[in-house]
Write a structure and sequence with these properties.
It is a single chain. With 89 residues, this protein is of the alpha/beta class. Helices cover 40% and strands 19% of the residues. It has three helices and three strands; from the N terminus they run βαβααβ. Strands 2-1-3 form a three-stranded parallel beta sheet.
Length: 89
Amino acid sequence: MEKIIHYCWFGEGEKPKLTQKCIETWKKFLPDYKMKKTSTSIAAALLKRLMRRAILHLSATMRVQRLFMKTAEFILTQTLRFLKALTVF
């Protein structure tokens, strides 16, 4: 089973220090997970489709989508810091 962490970064420039520190903890405590970033450019097409359907909450929509997939994927906010390894899977 592929292990993936999805996170969103909307905006330009460097991520805030807190965000960078939290993402580093993901890499440290979840080394076998692949990181997938959804950025402004990637989200533009998705946002356009969502707006047509009047779906307002992009992050919530992505979370619901992941519930129906049979992989070990989840979405984290950038202010979530891991203090130890995740051993659920």
